[in-house]
Amino acid sequence: MNDIIDIVDFLWFKFKKRMSSISEEELKYQMRKSIHFFEKTQLTDRRYLFKLLRAQYLYQKARKEELLSEDEIEWCERVIYGKSISNKNDYSSKIMEEIDQVIRNRRSVRQSWTDDPLTENDFRRLIDIARWSPSACNRQPWNFILTNNKKKIKLLANQRGNWIEDAPSCILVIIDMTAYHEGERSYTPYLDTGSVIQTLLLKAEAMDYGACWVNFGVSEVDKESREEINKLFSLPYEHKIVSIIPIGKYEKKPDPPGRKNAESMMFIEEYDG
Fold first, then answer.
1. Boundaries of CATH 3.40.109.10 in the chain?
2. What is the pLDDT of residues 5-57, one digit of tens each?
């Protein structure tokens, strides 16, 4: 028993020493990963105590520094201290049909926008829903910049297509790469970005906005242009623009594109296409 206590004490000392000098952003990411791990993993051995202490410490430190939203505080209190909340929703058939309709009606709008820009209030409504998208270890590594500035939109259009210049607004979807280990950076950030973009686009459809998902990767935008754009939007080095979304009210929605049959992409147990 004393050996277990000594090991936990040693790990706890090393952990607190390392945590004393981390940035606010790293503290938040570490806390989210720790709470997520503790929530999803059933620990029964001596690692349990250290994991619990680690999660509690990170949560209390982040809360003391006022870095957490009310939703995150509720989440942490539930996972660490067992405070129960009821989050089960029973959806009516009407609501399910409406969700299906939003998904089917979403289009990539590239023209026929009006001159009305995305308002700050509607931008907030979009992001308030998009933030509920899943991300690896619940890191929530996203940031979003809204621009209604014609000169800035023109600069973005010069990189990815002149048609973007006609959009009244653009949303830049940004990933904080410091949320990921080096080995994750070629893959996981882009899964997380795709998740949040899809949610944002569906909410935009429900709000009667036309939008389009436009890649902003290294194969589309060269290093010099990317640095120029990062400077224009005052982005830190580790914050990477993954996509831009031209968005606005529109006069005509594109006709629906053809879709493969569901049966043609469904397989049970093994692929036999």
1. 97-248
2. 445 554 544 555 566 667 888 888 888 888 888 787 765 555 677 778 888 88
Q: What are the beta bridge partners of residue 147?
A: 170
Helix (H), strand (E) counts: the chain: 9, 5
At residue 250, what are phi and psi to the nearest 5 degrees? -140, 160
β-sheet bridge partners, residue 192: none
User: What three-state secondary structure class fits 170?
Assistant: strand
Instruction: Note the pLDDT of residue 44.
Output: 56
CA distance 174 to 25: 15
Q: Which of 162, 152, 257 is nearest to 214 (CA)?
A: 162
What tokens were used for 122? 């509607």
> Helices (DSSP H) in the chain: which residue ranges?
2-19, 24-40, 47-64, 70-81, 93-105, 120-130, 150-160, 188-206, 223-232
More confident: 174 or 52: 174
Q: What is the pLDDT of residues 137-166, one digit of tens each?
A: 999 999 999 999 999 999 999 999 999 999
Long-range contacts of 88-92 (CB under 8 A, 24+ apart): none
Contacts 24+ apart (CB under 8 A), 121-126: 122/207, 122/209, 123/171, 125/203, 125/207, 126/171, 126/200, 126/203, 126/204, 126/207
Domain range 97-248, CATH class: alpha beta
